[in-house]
TrEMBL record, chain A:
Gene3D superfamilies associated with the record: Molybdopterin biosynthesis MoaE subunit
Protein name: Molybdopterin synthase catalytic subunit
Record's function text: Converts molybdopterin precursor Z into molybdopterin. This requires the incorporation of two sulfur atoms into precursor Z to generate a dithiolene group. The sulfur is provided by MoaD.
UniProt keyword annotation of Transferase present: yes
SUPFAM superfamilies, per database record: Molybdopterin synthase subunit MoaE
Organism for this UniProt entry: Mesobacillus subterraneus
Lineage, top ranks: Bacteria, Bacillati, Bacillota, Bacilli, Bacillales
UniProtKB/TrEMBL annotation, chain B:
Claim: rRNA-binding is one of the keywords in the record: no
Function according to Swiss-Prot or TrEMBL: Involved in sulfur transfer in the conversion of molybdopterin precursor Z to molybdopterin.
GO MF, one example: nucleotide binding
Subunit and interaction comment: Heterotetramer of 2 MoaD subunits and 2 MoaE subunits. Forms a stable heterotetrameric complex of 2 MoaD and 2 MoeB during adenylation of MoaD by MoeB. During catalysis MoaD shuttles between the two heterotetrameric complexes.
Protein name as it appears in the record: Molybdopterin synthase sulfur carrier subunit
Family: Belongs to the MoaD family.
NCBIfam families reported in the protein's UniProt record: moaD
GO biological process: Mo-molybdopterin cofactor biosynthetic process
Pathway entry: Cofactor biosynthesis; molybdopterin biosynthesis
Keyword Nucleotide-binding annotated: yes
Amino acid sequence: MNFEIAKDPINVQAVIDKVIQREAGAITTFIGTVREWTKGKKTVYLVYEAYEPMAVKKLEQIGTEIQERWSGAQVAITHRVGKLDITDIAVVIAVSTPHRNDAYEANRYAIERIKEIVPIWKKEHWEDGEEWIGNQLETVPYPTGKPEEKDFHE
Amino acid sequence: MNKLLFFAHLRDEAGHESVEIDAAGKTVAELKRMVAEKYGVQKLDSSMTAINEEFASNEEVIKEGDTIAFIPPVSGG
């Protein structure tokens, strides 16, 4: 189970352990955490929600895409859902590859893809209100009803 | 019958997590229009749609038993 949605705190080492391989010369780890201040607004806490079965499938797809692009890569991703406080870990991505440059690039690719195709949403709770993020500005309309290939590379 | 799933702000707007509806034979675009009218959901145009957990275009035709999820722009990570 290299790709998971978790309701409990993520054990970073457990995610890293999944990509350990004798062929690897590098493991990169990305840890996404809950930030207190965004554009002058103070976050009190976040709630993440996922369409879980599809989210797991899409995380698996990202893993497959990485293995097609960076040969020899092993990937593990765990994303948390539920209520998260400031500094809590929301996502951990571990990538191992034979050489370090690939591990950095592939890890960056994974987080950008998560923000495009994995059905997970966050609700910001501020001192004076709350809002689902990703909806209000409507900066990412999908006129055809699904993401186009070009949307993945912006 | 078909199961429709709403997430994030769409669920708040619709007032339901899921509903059962007969949508077989309709395209995704037709279903979006119908759902917007019936459940008062405003922002379906900016949402993606998944049929049986895979992204689908507005032209795709829904079959009996399909599960349709409306996916607002995502904000994970």
